[in-house]
């Protein structure tokens, strides 16, 4: 059993409260990613789990035991950092086995664990090399191997891929996922990169200013963000936010975006927003993929409007288009065949079945 539980965990540095009372339950075998902008408290949280930082308040348990006062070496965790310093004078095998040798594991046991980890990481033919004879990606694998051979209760990763180039990062992301599928060790992984968080995690924990904004599966966070922060942080290009109002017209609830654009809301949305005050300052939240060119057989809730495109960005499989609604910049995603051109009008459609409505004052999704 190696679940990890955080109860009202606080970290204070003098007058800075880096972590402000975090509750988090990580299940055995689960892969949880802490994501958020730089300085939001991710590393501090991870280092408290590792025991590298004292906690100012609250409790941390690993495998059901409170570990607040247990030193790092006795917590049965293995950590992989962005700067995965390998010993330059040791071979790959020696680097991987270093921790086991310190603990006087039997030679045969060490050998089989290193061989197994090397096979899993696809570096079996490199075990006799020195770190300087390896590429960045291979070194990162060795660093992971060093963690795997210890067979810990919990893996802790702090931005392990940040030093790699973009292509290698994507490859290693897939490797890490494969390794987790095999060893199934409970994992807490820290990154500022929302794509990495979405692709790796069973559940994502979005942090902001020392607090948890929302916890959910990647799809839950993407489709049902609870706050403006999460809505804007998850997804690329980011969700659009446009000031709007609700109004009654022709006996139906409408969403008014500009003097000229007011859309009837689909019935499910109208029911959900019925009780929202008509005077409340609101924002429409809508993802670029829900603003497209018009299609021949539009479904209910997909409303046409005309946009004057300022800039278009052909991406190959799609074209990103940029225009404004009441001076608010908006991004849409159209087919490369939609005839989108810089400076030209385009007939567009907004899918209100996938809209979000936010209270501008509280930042909460309604
Ligand atoms: N040793 C320290 N002394 C004082 N403040 C610190 C220390 N370590 C981190 N902090 C502060 O705590 C906050 C969270 O830092 P950190 O957990 O490293 O953020 P993240 O990993 O999300 O980028 C930041 O404001 C940072 O400046
Ligand atoms: Mg950090």
TrEMBL record:
Q: Offer an example of a GO molecular function term for this protein.
A: ATP binding
The cross-references to Pfam families, in alphabetical order and at most eight, read: ABC_tran, OB_MalK
Which keywords does this chain's UniProt record carry? ATP-binding, Nucleotide-binding, Transport
* Superkingdom of this protein's organism: Bacteria
Q: Does the record carry Nucleotide-binding as a key word?
A: yes
Query: Known InterPro entries for this protein?
Result: AAA+_ATPase (IPR003593), ABC_transporter-like_ATP-bd (IPR003439), ABC_transporter-like_CS (IPR017871), ABC_transpr_MalK-like (IPR015855), ABC_transpr_MalK/UgpC-like (IPR047641), Mo/tungstate-bd_C_term_dom (IPR008995), NA-bd_OB-fold (IPR012340), OB_MalK-like (IPR040582)
Answer whether the UniProt record assigns the keyword Mitochondrion to this protein: no
Q: Which residues form the ABC transporter domain?
A: 4-234
Protein task: Involved in beta-(1-->2)glucan export. Transmembrane domains (TMD) form a pore in the inner membrane and the ATP-binding domain (NBD) is responsible for energy generation.
Recorded family membership: Belongs to the ABC transporter superfamily.
Return the PANTHER family for the record. Answer: MALTODEXTRIN IMPORT ATP-BINDING PROTEIN MSMX, OSMOPROTECTIVE COMPOUNDS UPTAKE ATP-BINDING PROTEIN GGTA
The record's listing under NCBIfam families reads: PRK11650.1
Q: What is this protein called?
A: Sn-glycerol-3-phosphate ABC transporter ATP-binding protein UgpC
